[in-house]
Amino acid sequence: MLAVSVLLVTGSTLAGCSGETSWKTEVLTSMSVKINTVLPNNRLVHHNTKLRTERVSLYYGTFRALKDISLDIPEHAITAIIGPSGCGKSSFLRLFNRMNDLITRARVEGCVELDGVHIYEKSTDVVELRKRVGMVFQKPNPFPMSVFDNVSFGPRQHGRKSRGELGDIVEKSLKLAALWDEVKEKLDQSALALSGGQQQRLCIARVLAVEPEVILMDEPCSALDPVATLKIEDLMTNLAANYTIVIVTHNMQQAARVSDMAACFLMDPDRSGVLVEYGPTSQIFTNPKDKRTEDYITGRFG
Amino acid sequence: MSVNNTRMVSFDGTTPKARRLNARQTQAIAKATIWAAAVLVILILFAIIFYILSKGIPELDWEFVSEIPSDMGRSGGILSPIIGTLAVTAVAIVIAAPLGVGTAFYLTEYTYEGGITRIIRFGAESLAGIPSIVYGLFGFIFFVIYLKLGWSIVSGGLTLAVMILPTIIRTSEEAIRTVPQIYREVSLSLGGTRWQTITRAVVPSALPGIATGVILGIGRCVAETAAVILTAGSALRIPTSIFAPTRTMAVHFYILAREGISMERAYGTAALLIILILLINIVANILVNRFVARGR
Ligand SMILES: Nc1ncnc2c1ncn2[C@@H]1O[C@H](COP(=O)(O)OP(=O)(O)O)[C@@H](O)[C@H]1O
Ligand SMILES: [Mg+2]
Description:
The structure holds two protein chains of two kinds.
Chain A lengths: L36 E2 L5 E2 L3 E12 L2 E12 L3 E5 L6 H5 L12 E9 L2 E2 L7 H7 E4 L10 H5 L1 H5 L5 H14 L3 H4 L12 H13 L5 E5 L7 H14 L4 E5 L3 H7 L2 E7 L5 E8 H6 L4 H7 L5
Chain B lengths: L15 H4 L3 H34 L5 H5 L2 E2 L4 E2 L2 H32 L4 H14 L3 H15 L6 H25 L3 H9 L4 H30 L2 H4 L19 H10 L4 H33 L1
Antiparallel strand pairs in B: 1-2
The complex binds adenosine-5'-diphosphate and magnesium ion (MG).
């Protein structure tokens, strides 16, 4: 089933960070591949790298919230970020759509790449970047507008489109988010009238409407009940075939259920977040190499 | 009520414990007090409005709103003061609303807290506390004399604009600040520019508050006498351009009452002033609700 052919691509032609020759691999299958191999330096083989960080540190003022994180995130797969509260998971996630830019005192060191291109370059178009890298937040947060206006919010920002075009986008996005059947009768009603789980799927539809390549999710189910949570998980699994998903979660079962890859973050004694272990989810959960990962997963701290 | 009652003894020697109210009694008394205050305020307000309307409404007829005053206002109508009020207020709002709302957005969305914001805010707050006669004097010296605009609708409007600017800035700023930060984050995360984020995510939520500020400003313009009398004059002709002098309803009312020309006409003017302010409020509310409802 896995017809994996390895292609050799030399050099990073665009402004990557390392400059050295990098290995890239391509997977020629129609389905999402659930097997990734990770080198000791957290570099991937056997899969395209969509997002990549290289010795990234994030500072809030003088406080170093993330310390030297190097990580390859595979394309068309779900990567889970796990770790105790305050270890910098959200901060890490927000690196990829540069949401930390909104915080005056935040400063990034090191390299963050999307498709091999450094995204903290002066020349980076942040608006364009955010169209490619969407984000679903912790609490469902629809705008106080109709369902239709919520989903079409992004496309409306990106140029004038006719109501018909917008209608198509809205329908397609809601279908992708597995919400269409529940809301097709109430597109003109307030999004705030939907249930929490529906609101969160609406927020996912709102992101999908922008047609991103990457979807970042920051504990998207932490405010939802178990049934709604399972629906979102199903949805994520379906989306993974076409999108690169990075999800922060507190829920170990959730990480185990949905993710292909898992990265475990912990706090150093100086409260900086560090990456302790990264690898295929099955390995992280059944056979962690690092004692601290095992302790965290089995609930001994955090 | 966070007194440590084991140590405290009140003047008559009883321990406070015996006299202390329990939480429910405190709650009941607090509630009654608040209710009484609210009812009192509303009663006073309605008493004033009722008194003026009952005296003024009998004066109102078609002639009153369609004719210009004659015999200093003893007879005829108040058409020219009505026009004067609308014109001066319109000039003031057209200038102050965009400037004030723009400043508020600049302060909240485009700068980080720092020296400049503090200076602007301090300036606005100081201006808010200045009596209107001082604005009148400033307007008279600066607009009327120095800029040679004379007693005119522009001079009056500009003076009122300066006067209501702080109110509009402060209320708009507050309205913008209460818009949840997450709306901005979501809009930006969907690839919105800063400007799109402001116009599409922030403005709709802040609009009712901003409108409230502008309406407060309109109210102050309509009601102002001291600043207008010094800058727009008190001419009774119908103004033919914005450089013509005029008289607003509030000024007309003041002159009628002050110079004992006609108390009846003064009450009529006051009644119409109240009705005008109510109307402006209602219309503005409808407009805002319609705008907000478009999204909901
Ligand atoms: N805006 C901010 N300013 C200053 N410190 C922050 C800010 N956001 C987060 N932090 C700090 O950075 C650390 C990591 O936070 P966060 O990324 O939210 O962790 P997590 O999502 O893993 O709980 C915490 O110590 C937190 O206090
Ligand atoms: Mg977090």
